[in-house]
Amino acid sequence: MAFREYKIGARMFGLALASSMFITLVMPTLDIRSVGSTDIALDKQLAAGRETGFNLDDPFLLGKNKPLKVLLHADPKTNAPLDAPRYVYVFQAGTSFPSGILHPVTLGENQAKLSESQGQISAADKTVGAVFAVAHGAIDGKEYPFIENLTATRGWTPADILQVSKDEDVAHVGAGKTLFVREGCWWCHTLLPEETQDWQVFGAPPALGDFNGESPTAFGSDRKAPDLLHVGSRNSSREWLMMHFFNPRLVQTHSIMPRFDYLWGKTDADGHPIDFDKWRTEYLEYHDGKRVVPPEVPTYAKDSEIRYLIDFILSLK
């Protein structure tokens, strides 16, 4: 009798768990596809590339297999200035495309139609790479954002873009999101202002169509620190972020955030070794009142992990 009741209870629990997972995981995907992608959704997936987090392309979460977000000022073929600078997304040869390229249905019905017809995304070839951008088109008099394959429509190649771009115009947003996930930033920070006084402090919450093709969303599970969804609009100072990540107590005296100075690597921007022990000793002297000013934070190398993470933080607008 007891065993039979145990089986019934186990089956009921399994049914409840399966129903919960269906409601949590499956039903939102149907809603997202029916709503369609916003400009924000297309920007996020083109900047981050394929799913972020553990995968076979980057098992140690080093920020590999990711595109580059580039602010383009001139036509890479003719060097003629553009009417206005625009962002393009550079997928070098071998870099995996996001779901919106591989499975356009996830973009929404009209966004998919425009991306395939006008954007020519089906012509994109991972083996040679491609350059994408967010464009706008109309269906039945209504405007929709879509993905344009600039390699097919304009003949722009990844090499063309990188040849005319300065390092300060290149953002490693995708690699930075990998670092954001790997370092556990979303354990304390959220990317989802709640429908409360959050709006007054952290900005408007995201819309449903802002998440098409994003994996993972990095909403966060708790908030021990400020929401970061619009942090790039609130604070765009790269220098402030450098101090904050190297030692948060430099900018927030009572901050509980851990140091992320190890993301600088072994050398600074000039190739000189970083003496972390000396820096920490001098900082403690400053903390104890034995120094008037804190030690200077070393400038990071352009290929350091902290550069990638800061690029991602500044992209959150």
Verbal overview:
The chain has a 5-stranded antiparallel β-sheet. By secondary structure, the protein is an alpha+beta fold. The model has no long low-confidence stretch (mean pLDDT 92). The chain folds into 3 domains: 1-35; 39-171, no CATH class; 179-315, Orthogonal Bundle (Cytochrome Bc1 Complex, Chain D, domain 2). The radius of gyration is 23 Å and the shape is globular. The protein has 12 helices and 5 strands. 34% of the residues are buried. Helix content is 38%, strand content 12%. The N and C termini lie far apart (60 Å). A hairpin with a 2-residue loop joins strand 3 and strand 4.
Using the coordinates shown, work out and report the CATH topology of the largest domain: Cytochrome Bc1 Complex, Chain D, domain 2
What fraction of the residues are assigned to beta strands by DSSP?
5-15%
CATH class of the largest domain: Mainly Alpha
CATH superfamily (homologous) name of the largest domain: Cytochrome c-like domain
Distance between the termini: 60 Å
The major pleated sheet works out as:
5 strands, antiparallel
What kind of oligomer do you see? single chain
What is the chain-wise order of helices and strands? HHEEHHEEHHEHHHHHH
What number is the mean pLDDT?
92
Helices, by number, come to 12
- Biggest sheet: strands side by side, in what order? 4-3-2-1-5
Which outline best applies?
globular
Instruction: Give the % helix.
Output: 25-40%
Counting structural domains, the number is 3
Number of strands: 5
